[in-house]
Design brief:
single chain; 401 residues; alpha/beta; eight-stranded parallel β-barrel; 13 helices; binds 1-deoxynojirimycin
Amino acid sequence: MVETNEGGHDGVLRFPEGFLFGTATAAHQVEGGNTNNDWWVFEHDSSSGCVESSGDACDSFHRWREDVALVADLGLKAYRFSVEWSRIEPSEGEWSIAMLDHYRRICAACVGRGIQPVVTLHHFTTPIWLSKRGGWESRDAPERFARFVARVVAHLGDLIGMACTINEPNIVSVMGYTLGEFPPGLKNELGRHRAVNEAMIRAHHLGVEALNSGPGDFPVGMTLAMSELVAEEGGEKMRDAARELMEDVFLRELRDDDFVGVQCYTRTRFGPRGTLGPEPGVAPTQMGYEYWPQVVEHTLRRAADVTGIPVVVTENGVATEDDKERVAYMRDALSGLHRCIEDQIDVRGYFAWSLMDNFEWNLGYRPKFGLCALDRETFERRPKPSAFFFGEVSKRGELVV
Ligand code: NOJ
């Protein structure tokens, strides 16, 4: 699969026919005006530690046509976005047909432009009515989620290209119940953290069932945050415990799914007392964690190994002001992914996080993950060189290294 060329590069890496090069966003991070979910409340709570409010975000609620056109014009093959539960079910059991129509129009626009719509059903945000009675800790949260999923699939299923049930449930639980940085902002509540893991796993299974019972025929999976977990001197126990709580508890449950979505950004080092910061000499990104594109190869191998099902990188990228660094990061990440393919690992796609600079949760708008820059006054999206680089890789189905 590696051919040498004469352009002064080492070679050309070809990707299999049908390999999906795409980019991803999430409703709350780009739509703007999502005032009816737990995140909006959290952002506006001065004790939450959030840097700022999501506000208008990228105004994608109104400008989604531009977003879809951008993805298509860049030459990408898929657009991953999420539908906002709190818009579709603004109060318990009350359904907004207008909002379902809105998301249906986005799917249709993707299909019309030859892009696969990859729909995420839950990307971190929970409607206020559910969060008020405990969110994922509420006894019937998985059933409420499944009912919402059934409603969405009944309305859009015939247009969906691929579906992700829950985005990074392991981050929802660790950030919400152990680190206190996401709603509900609790710290060191390990028992509750574990219970939320279980609830989300159950919600995932019910969600898969709902997605498979509606119209359409598309692959269904969960997306998981994964990291290259490294034990430094004496850190083995901590590393193994984190691996179990953060990854394996979920991966073991995914073996009957159509794919597993791997979302990876960095590596995490462990010492005897827990996580260590970036290693001296390894540059931190705007997120404060290590610049580590090698994580893609590592986590793909691990996810495939534990689950035995096809893998898709549903998110990968780097937060940086230096777009050259982004290109370098993606080049290394994609080279590692290609080595997995050479080793017969069934990797189906790679989604760059993100289409454009957007609302990075508790950290606000400072981290820049976008292939496109966003003018926060005019909402103009301006593709960066990395967008064109990635678009070319997608159009040619190959990467020059
Ligand atoms: C994972 C999350 O799914 C996404 O919402 C977030 O912005 C990126 N990682 C970057 O941190």
